[in-house]
Design a protein that fits this description.
heterodimer, A: 676 residues, 7-stranded parallel sheet, 22 helices, B: 7-stranded parallel sheet, 30% helix, Hydantoinase/dihydroPyrase (chain B), Dihydropyrimidinase-related protein 2 (chain B), Metal-dep_hydrolase_composite (chain B), hydrolase activity, acting on carbon-nitrogen (but not peptide) bonds, in cyclic amides (chain B)
Amino acid sequence: MSDCRRQWNREDELPVYLAGPISTGPNQRKSFGMFSSVEGAFDSKTIDFDNYAVGRKGSRTPRSGSRERVLETGDPVGKTPGEAEEGTVNESTAETEDGGPGVEITNSSGKESPNGKSEKLLIKGGRVVNDDQSLYADVYIEDGLIKQVGENLVVPGGVKVIEANGRMVIPGGIDVNTCLMKPFLGTHPVDDFLQGTKAALAGGTTMIIDHVTPQPGDSLLEAFECWQEAADKKACCDYSLHVDIPQWNEIVKDELELLVHEKGINSFQVYMAYKDLYQMSDSELYEAFTFLKQLGAVVLVHAENGDLIAQEQRKILGMGITGPEGHPLSRPEELEAEAVFRAITLGNRVNCPVYITKVMSKSAADTITQARRKGSVVFGEPITASLATDGSHYWSKNWAKAAAYVTSPPLSPDPTTPDHLHTLLACGDLQVVGSAHCTYSTSQKAIGKDDFTLIPEGTSGVEERMGFVWDKAVAMGKMDENQFVAVTSTNAAKIFNLYPRKGRIAVGSDADIVIWDPDSVKTISAKLQQSAAEYNIFEGMECRGGPVLVLSQGQVVYEEGKLQVQPGTGRFIPRKHFPDLAYQRIKFRNQVMSKKGVTRGMYDGPVYDVDPAPKYITPAPSAKSSPTSHQPPPIRNLHQSNFSLSGAQTDDNVPRRSGHRIVAPPGGRSNITSLG
Amino acid sequence: MAFQTKKSNARPAGDRLIIKGGKIVNDDQSFYADIYVEDGAIKQIGENLIVPSSVKTVDAYGQLVIPGGIDANTNLQAPQKGQSPIDDFYQGTRAAVFGGTTMIIDHVLVEPGVSLLSAFDQWRETAEQRACCDFSLHLDITRWHDGLYEELETLIKDKGVNSFLFFMSYKDKYQSSDSQLYEAFGVLRDLGAIAQVHAENGDIIDEEQKKLLCLGITGPEGHVLSHPEEVETEAVYRAITIAKQANCPLYVTKVMSKSAADVIAKARKKGMVVYGEPITAGLATDGSQYWSKDWATAAAFVTSPPLNPDPSTPQYLTSLLACGDLQVTSSAQASFSTAQKAVGKDDFTLIPEGTNGIEERMSVVWDRAVTSGKMDENEFVAVTSTNAAKLFNMYPRKGRIAVGSDADIVVWNPKETQTVSAKTHNLTVEVNILEGLEFRGVASVVISGGRVVLEDGKLNVTEGSGRFVPRKAFPDAVYKRIRARSKMAEARGVPRGNYDGPVHDVISMTKSVPSTPTTRGPPCPKTQTGTRNLHQSGFTLAGAQVDDHIPRRSTQRIVAPPGGRSNITSLS
């Protein structure tokens, strides 16, 4: 399409008489004021595709006209190379081959201000791709916000013009899973908020949601503030934060409430793995889910069966396997699938949305798919690593290479996994692509050189994320460009309540925009990447598709391979609770699913005498008892009952089930699991 | 009748019997033949047998002669909340015999803190005094710890117990954690026993129960509401995952819901060694009665996992049974009188759990599966008797009509019908959950240990005539595959040179290895590894490694190679 579009660009140069009629037609827009968004700019220009198709040429012309208008006040120099090409009769492929920039920027002279907030930008001639539709339109940006979308925009003079030349203009990516400050044994990832966000921007991601990872015993609030402070200083793109809950207790509850209501956090991660460290028992998970649901937060789950992993690790170390291959051997795929299944069951019982982070294996993804078929509110997030590579490298002879792949859940050794995950992503069974970017240098990884359980876990991927989705899904024909936008940006924005501020190109949204070149090919290499890690797990892989230009908050931060960022420009984006996408269904189910008892007469027969001393008090729990030991339920005093001997009951006159809605009636299931 | 008078001896010599004219049905074939029984064993099978005179003849013309049923799950003595079941070994086995079951395997519930051996001895003693048919015993382990290993070894090697049940439910009482299950399964595999699980997620149930009681729901419907199907399914899935990891055969008791049965069926398709056992109640009725206005009726249905409110469940389970995805039918007999159940009249969590079914089991399967055309008579024998005998290593002594097998024989009349009623059944419990249901297929003559114990609708049983049947470890039907996999599934490391690059210094050890007495330790309590002297490593600066000459993967069998999975999951 972009080639095609470029040809149309050449048509811009057609004589005016061919394009004339519409430029003077009723569609021509009147300005409603210099800086206000033009009313209806979006609608009439974009949805009317038929008109658009017919009037292709015509609709080009006024824009080129408007360009002229800009150029009158602007600097004509910047225009030359692209225009020269457009003037030629070359095939469009020649355009890309001759290395000419796909995007050109025309600065209005003397108007460019160093203060980005007041910068005015016009992205011209691009194809705006949202998750629902694609359309040709220009985008006018001012004060870091999108002010106008449409054709024939009336913009003030002195704007900087970015010529997209028919390339895709997409909402900046949102990476929902990064760990840029996650401590491991006191060391921090080599990619901090500065390096990490730089890498993100270079890959077309303009917002990250980082995980705050307090240690057990730490205050969530303090950890949050610590993260926020670090990010405010260093981050180059907007960010938000998930908070991980390392343990469950009463103090945590108060902090959670505060975080949700005052700090703008609506997502919290709980762990089913990392036994004796972060792992929560099913009871704790149930309580946590219940509590977070009341707060309207999204529950993120790290789904692996920690008990079994601990056992397997012991076994494998006992066998003398200490290298990185022990990592996938001790965390087989089944343990991930099992935990996903359990998390979904818990979510269903509590009626709470569940978001599975890091879907790494086919069986885990299939489990999510099946649950969605049954109506569970569950979301799945594959990550760059699982989408682009597999776990065969754990068996590499090169320790450093093998260790670089260590992450949890591990990459599946099955080489068909990436393909399968892309398929599910394309059909909507998985929703969001994260990166789980958490890079440790080789020397940090080498902490575990004699014991794989000590290798810090984490892979890179924040920079490569969007590229690989394009390369492996869109370029392969599995996914269309709209779905691409959905999985890399819009879905995340919706689930985490950033929409439509983020994740959409629309009037009023943040100007986080990427101009995407679907044809650029690059070979991944640690040397060329922004990340500070020495070893890139995608080393040597070719990747089609990449950003040409990235705008963050209306500022050009990446252009033609060059980053222009300032640490600390990233803002913290607060997120409100009860995101619609996750909670609408939950709210309705709440109303429907309330349980009612059966009103029946008191049982008035004989009651067996129970030995008052309950025989079955659990003895002092050994270290291996079930995680939380409560006393068994006390045996009631059964001699005190309030039934009367008269025989008549207060509700004798009520026929069975007349006034009661029984939600799990004979012939039905007790829960909504069979929604289509 | 001319047969011998009762022997007070626990080992009756038995009658000399000839069973004439019946169609013998084993799990693999049916044929017409006569059977001669002497000294409690089958001595001859064939036509025109030469038998001594003065032999009692059992007429089986027009009827089926099948191996006596084996009920692999009964609780005739296991107390709940301080109350013993109202039907003990005598009442229970009497009812069993009446229904055509000639052997039961009862669950020994070992309370936490009680020695396994003493509980076993106590059960065995009681059963030997009371039981009217042969029996064997499962052990229910309610608190796993390493110290049990020796007792387990004794039980398996010397006492003839090869199956152990673990609870994933009954939080803070019997429930085992995943780690415990994994350890226990590993031990059982080494000793050659079968792991059984009561599969329900106890944590979730506990929370749901609290929630429901808060909502003011105290009646028996709270039981089914707090034990939703998913909770069972989840636990079955988890149990299978754990068993897979431990490479241990798994037997899921009481499969009560469609989705749980599906999980088992799917796991079997992936090659797992897992068996599923639906019970009489689950095959015959559904959970709609929990909403009965009559408290006593509703309470009678309380069992865990509960009967599913979905009325299509029995049909579905029967179908899976017929196609072999489920293997064994049992009764999960545990009957408590209404007065006993009424302990929980104000709180459903206190209602003793258990339903009847020991007597109706065979008839239910015949009526629901065979007469409806889902199953043939051989398959019927398999699911009611032979499969259980094979799994629990009693085959061919039990579960088959063959020369040398025990003379536990049932003459089955497929045409007769009976209507279940608490008034006429042989149990003492007042409410029969199958009340009023009519079943085709009735045991007309039952021979247990070579003695006719049911004839003409009259029971003639002797208290204490049942013998304990010891079961050896490593049943072939189960362990052949496990053994082969144990050999295959050994993980191997990658021989690689020592890592000789820089190693990040771990400074703040306090953060990673909490020496502070928090309850949570590091994932792997190997505190030394972190503090190793990293300056001492075994690599030489020569650059050459000892295994440099070995090309990669030449001699190493890598079980989870690139392109393959690390475990065998795709056997068909």
